[in-house]
Specification:
Keywords: ATP-binding, Cytoplasm, Cytoskeleton, Microtubule, Motor protein, Nucleotide-binding. The chain is an alpha+beta fold and 411 residues long. 28% of the residues lie in helices and 27% in strands. It binds adenosine-5'-triphosphate and magnesium ion. The site of magnesium ion has 4 residues, from α4.
Length: 411
């Protein structure tokens, strides 16, 4: 991965420099915390030959669905139009960068300026462009096809780095990143070879994912490396709509954490088997050359461990200053999309739909300002609990829609 992923002109295009920008969307009690945007996917070359485009974007907020139905007599076709209003609608010519600038950047700003809990979901039918939106048109194996159409995650990484360079953050904070997927209601760590991890409720009423690998980053290049690593092991499968369908919900979690709240330990602590081995003269047998009595590494011990190429585990204690999560949801499926792909695929599809329903219920409860958010109904909503319950949160749902007439039942 090149250390400088983005050219200078790209950076200028983004007009980086958080100091120059104030978030327009500072969450307040009176303001809606949920934004719903829709992105229309263009017809593929194949679809353009045989199908018609049934979606029109009108202005910045309206989507019109054209439907052709047979009259009851069965002889003539009747075309109807239905208009839908959203906070923002993007047409098929719109790039990931435009989406980032117009509605995602405010989440990044809010995380720093307001200590917000901000979430960005890509939601939609299988094959409608969720992963394309979050990750960009990426070739399998992790590398981008071209630098102009990176995913939202990567555009955010540039701003995150810019924020982290500001003295107020550089001195005191780091970004703690984790990347995991929920597949069949189980969580797997994408930064640790899909190791099974367990989301649990913390004593403070939050959520911790036990055994999840956390990576500490400050630059966009480090973040890109983490994302590439995770993407390379993410579960994909085939259905009738997408040869590389994401079969899981992928969650990239970014936390702004005080440096003093980060703890480093040797991933495999040799003192666990023979506590005196490293420092036989230590008064306390658990106090070795590396780490204190609890195994926590000091700054010097951390440097030594890293120089020796030892694997270091990171944990975070205390509350994060701000949180941002990008969630690339698995596609909602109709039975017909997976019917010819066997029982496992169908079971996957059923699990995906079930967890999406649980998510919908949480978002609805949040929107209605209810005290009770039913986040315990699925593993997906359990791990996102903080984002639903925290008062100072922004939630962006990007619904991706395919415009081919053969997909109209999915809208
Ligand atoms: N806006 C777009 N412009 C051009 N091509 C797109 C766009 N959105 C999606 N595609 C292409 O459509 C195909 C399916 O997209 P993608 O894998 O992102 O769908 P998905 O919604 O993530 O599906 P699933 O739920 O099955 O994972 C890919 O080949 C992708 O490159
Ligand atoms: Mg996908």
């Amino acid at each position: 991965m090149p250390s400088e992923m983005f050219s200078k002109s790209r950076r200028e295009e983004l007009a980086l420099g958080p100091a120059n920008r104030r978030p327009k969307n500072k969450p307040t009690a009176a303001k809606a915390r949920i934004t719903v945007a829709v992105r229309k996917k263009p017809l593929t070359a194949e679809e353009a030959k045989n199908d018609t485009d049934i979606l029109d974007v009108v202005g910045r907020q309206k989507l019109v669905l054209h439907e052709t139905r047979k009259e009851l007599s069965g002889t003539t076709d009747k075309t109807t139009q239905q208009g839908f209003q959203f906070d923002r609608v993007y047409d098929e010519y719109c790039s990931n960068l435009t989406i980032y600038k117009s509605c995602v950047r405010t989440l990044v700003d809010s995380m720093f300026e307001c200590g917000g809990r901000c979430s960005c979901f890509a939601f939609g039918q299988t094959g409608s462009g969720k992963t394309y939106t979050m990750m960009g048109p990426r070739k399998r194996g992790g590398k981008q096809e071209d630098s102009c159409s990176r995913g939202l995650w990567e555009w955010a990484a540039i701003d995150l780095e810019a924020w982290m360079k500001k003295p107020a953050y550089r001195e005191r904070f780091v970004l703690a990143i984790s990347f995991y997927e929920i597949h069949s209601n189980k969580a797997y760590d994408l930064l640790n070879n899909r190791n099974l991890v367990r989301p649990m409720e913390s004593a403070e009423g939050g959520v911790v994912v036990k055994d999840l690998v956390i990576r500490v980053v400050t630059t966009e290049a480090e973040m890109a490396e983490v994302i590439d690593l995770g993407n390379s092991v993410r579960s994909t499968g085939k259905n009738s709509r997408n040869n590389e369908s994401s079969r899981s919900h992928a969650i990239l979690s970014i936390e702004l954490v005080q440096k003093t709240d980060i703890e480093y330990r040797l991933a495999e602590n040799p003192r666990a088997e023979n506590p005196r081995a490293e420092n036989p003269r230590a008064e306390n047998p658990r106090e070795g050359a590396m780490g204190d009595r609890n195994g926590k590494l000091s700054a010097t011990a951390l440097q030594t461990a890293l120089k020796e190429g030892r694997s270091v585990a990171v944990s975070v204690r205390g509350k994060a200053h701000g949180k941002l999560a990008f969630i690339d949801l698995a596609g909602s499926e109709r039975g017909a999309d997976s019917v010819q792909f066997g029982r496992n695929t169908q079971q996957d599809g059923a699990n995906i739909n079930k967890s999406l329903l649980a998510l919908k219920e949480c978002i609805r409860a949040m929107d209605q300002g209810k005290d009770h958010i039913p986040f315990r109904d699925s593993e997906l909503t359990k791990v996102l609990r903080d984002f639903f319950t925290f008062a100072n949160g922004l939630c962006l749902m990007i619904a991706t829609v395919a415009s081919s007439s053969t997909r109209k039942n999915a809208h």
